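Hi support team,

I submitted a single chain yesterday and got back a structure, but I'm not sure I'm reading the token output correctly. Could someone confirm the output below corresponds to the sequence I sent? I've pasted both exactly as they appear in my results page.

Thanks,
R.
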Amino acid sequence: MLNRNTLVLVVGIAIVLVAPAFAETLEGNYNDMLHYLKIGRFDLAKGYAQAILDGNTVPVDLFALAEDNPQGYALVIKAKESSTDKELAGLCGKVVDVIEQGRFIRRADPKVIVEEIARLSGTARGRLNAVKRLQNAGEYAIMYMLDALGDDARKVEWPDISSALGQMSKEAIRPLVAALQTNNVGVKSEIIKALGKIGYPQSLPFLKYIAEKDSSSELRILAEASIKKIEPAALKVPAAQLCYQLGEDYYYHAESLAPAADANFANMWFWDANNARLGSERVDKRYFNELMSMRCCEWSLKADDKFGQAIGLWLAAFFKAESYDIDMPAYFGEGHANARTYATTAGPEYLHQALARAMKDKDAQVALDVVEALSTTAGESSLFFRVGTSQPLAEALSFDSKAVKYSAAIAIAAAGPKQVFPQSKLVVANLAEALAQSSEQSADDNTPMWNGELADLYAVRAARAMFKLAQARNPILDLSAAQDALVTATKDKRTEIQMLAGQILAHLNTPAAQEAIAAMAMTEGNSKDIRISAFGSLVVSAQLNANKLDDATINAIYALVSSKDIDPGLRAAAAAAYGALNLPSQKVKTLILDQARS
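Hi R., thanks for writing in. Yes, this is the structure output for that exact sequence:
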């Protein structure tokens, strides 16, 4: 057994041995990780990276270490992005995430921002440091800087704040242009001057709007002066056009307009007129660009309500935002209509603009949404609306997406065109192809744009569209080209498809069409409802096209009519068809004499 003195000695040695582990600090772990990354001892670097992640690390503290050692941080980034050791790359990626979280917390901290604004009016060295930190704060600093500029009690600070405002980065532009809606002329003038000094072209649309629309001649002159500093040629371009062009840049995700990378959200900035203050709402980064594109289009229409191109882009951006399948932002408000509602209200001209854009971009989802809206509202005169030299809906018939090209065909068929157009055969071909689609065929094609459920849906929609054309005896869309597909559809497993196929074939003046209807009616494996429906279609076919059946088929129908063992409803339907065929008198005579008892 250990005596007391020995026990004390053992415990003491254990404390000495364990103490370094407890004495480890965040700074020590970080520096050791960098050291072993630098010398290529990745096994040890991984251990220290894991210690950082497991150590309840405060993100702001880790960011401070990275900020003090830019070369070391670059080393972590390199390991994250290019290391062949996947475990190391993953751990370094997580460390970078914590650093960026710290960066965001630090730069968005209101207390820090307010303190730095106050330091602007201190010593020259303090002012330089404050400007740098406010630049790092970016868009988050603007709200507090404008608050100070609007506070008469802080007039002594205004020159320093105004100077700093003009030294902000491009990230400050979004909140600054939102704040141009202020009624405070003094603050507004400082914003205008700051935008000119910052010097990025995304300010131009809003400065030009001031130059064109503001009631103050002083502000209009200032806006023109700032425009000259950025791009003098913009003075000759209407604000509506500049807003539209910026909207297109957002729509196509221009890299120069991307939101800050250190947060998993983006900010939409608004001017709160009631409180005379900037405010923001966090939105999902996935549709941030589309939301900003919509906003630019709205400003375009504010500048010129006749600038219709902005409507087409706005619709495309809204449809594109919806395609991410996430809830619209809270600022849309309760009861805000969806894109389809606005699209059907807007009318065909603007929908064709949106469709032309989607076709050019090969954006199947936006193209589909627009075509579906067109199918609701477009008549023949607007279906083939031209955008430049193109006819977007006609071109959609050849789009590399089943849903888009089938929807385009259905939209055109629904409008019932009366004038000849080059793509009429393609419309019928697409309808026939859609009719043949089924969930069984599409079992292995399970994508957001096409799956078994959609296949069945389009088959029914195509059949209904063709039936409407057949009833209207449309002279432009010749359904005889779809006869083979319709004959095949009479044998389909889906009841509605079978019935509709028979009803459509009834309007085709060919023996093959009438025989297919009769075969469907006479097939005992079909349900009673299908057979009765087919006999009804045979009645219509006979009325429209007279008898085209051979004697064997007629005799089979006669046998059904004369049978006493058949279902009365089915027998009556067969009898109606037999009579509609308007057969020679000897056929009817046989039927009469067969039942005679005299």
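A quick pointer for reading it: The first strand starts at residue 265 and ends at 272. Let us know if anything else looks off.

Best,
Support desk
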